[in-house]
């Protein structure tokens, strides 16, 4: 096989694999402050889980406005706010829960992990020292249901 055809075949295979990975999770856009390292760690977790991640550093006032505009109750806030396929993902939500949300498609604003619990994705290692936390489903109108629990 000529070298040119081999190269094109490899390039096509690489493109297909990258496209498949991005489609497996979807494209997620993250709003965060420029100084937040745990947001970067969470974005890495999402990327490693198959999501195509983009980020935008915004002033804190704009970040807070984005949360309010999305309809998130103040007690559900965390350090970053993301959007994917019509949903809001607030804070350190595990990628598996985002995938489940996208598969089930509930009538909701999205998912939230309030605060920054240690042991959640981007906030240290899960294990015996991890904080217990819930992933909350935020319904339209502000009602909250537990979507997943980590203990």
Structural notes for this entry:
The chain contains 4 helices and 7 strands. The longest helix has 23 residues, at 3-25. It has a single domain, classed as 3-Layer(aba) Sandwich (Glutaredoxin). The chain has helices at 3-25, 37-48, 60-70, 95-104, and strands at residues 26-32, 51-57, 81-84, 87-91, 108-113, 133-139, 144-150. The radius of gyration is 17 Å and the shape is globular. By secondary structure, it is α/β, with parallel strands linked by helices. Strands 2-1-3-4-5-6-7 form a 7-stranded mixed sheet, sandwiched between helices. A hairpin with a 4-residue loop joins strand 6 (133-139) and strand 7. Keywords: Signal. InterPro entries: DUF411 (IPR007332). Residues 1-24 form the signal peptide.
């Amino acid at each position: 096989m000529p070298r040119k055809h081999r190269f094109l075949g490899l390039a096509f295979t690489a493109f297909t694999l990258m496209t498949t990975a991005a489609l497996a999770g979807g494209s997620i856009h993250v709003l965060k402050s420029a100084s937040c390292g745990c947001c970067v760690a969470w974005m890495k977790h999402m990327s490693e889980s198959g999501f195509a991640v983009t980020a935008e550093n915004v002033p804190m006032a704009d970040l807070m406005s984005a949360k309010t505009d999305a309809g998130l109750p103040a007690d559900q806030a965390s350090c970053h706010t993301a959007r994917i396929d019509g949903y809001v993902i607030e804070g350190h939500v595990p990628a598996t829960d985002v995938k489940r949300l996208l598969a089930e498609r509930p009538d909701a604003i999205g998912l939230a992990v309030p605060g920054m619990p240690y042991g959640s994705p981007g906030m240290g290692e899960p294990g015996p020292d991890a904080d217990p936390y819930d992933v909350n489903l935020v319904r339209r109108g502000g009602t909250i249901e537990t979507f997943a629990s980590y203990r």
